[in-house]
Amino acid sequence: MRGASGAGRHVYLLGHNISYSASPAMQNAAFAAVGLDWVYELLDIPPSELPTAVRKLRAEDAGGANVTIPHKLTVMDHLDVIDPEALRARAVNTISREGHRLVGSNTDVAGIRSAVADVGIEPRGADVVILGAGGSARAAAAALEGAHLTFVARHPDEADVPGRVAAWNDPEWSRKSRSADLLLNATPLGRRDEMPLRPNALPRDGAVIDLVYVTGGTPLVRKARSLGLRTADGWGILLAQGARSFEIWTGKPAPLEAMRQTLPK
Fold this sequence. Notes:
Rossmann fold; six-stranded mixed beta sheet; six-stranded parallel beta sheet
């Protein structure tokens, strides 16, 4: 039941190759802080096992789930209700129960909106380059309503996003990113010691947001900071979206300080 506070509930993170996730520590600290006997755990599943994993959420002891790559779009086919924000983003990252119905929501949008505000960008009319064309990129597009969007995709012909799409090997987008108001990385690139683009493609006088989080900042964020650009990284976005997910599952205000304490300083 959405907003239920019963004891002994299980909340899951549905994704694949997600052992790096900081969400279990953050959400388990949140449950403890408000006195809930709930547990948050990873379910690392390939796409073929997604239907079975979603069925677990219909059990009485299930409190809900987060959803991450590569399941944010395909999970929508297994839910009963999709809320308007998730429909706009065409991606679900949070699942809750309303009686016997599973409800899909998107709290990534709220997290990205928070990051956009932190770097001082007014979306309407802004020129934005988004690296990626998946669920996170679509959530970014929903958070940046009114902006002029250019998406950079490995397979531009297959991209289904609300804006112009350029190929990774097209030099035009890197020139465009130099004059962009905002560059946003919505790909997994950067979790290891790698840059998703050449440093000379960074905005000259704009801002950089990286949805990826690693201790000390991703290579993209570190380089942008060294150039004096305004930046936001995935840690703040993780906290903001995680807090909203917590509130959806439990019906309680998120204990932000307890959640923040689990993240790197």
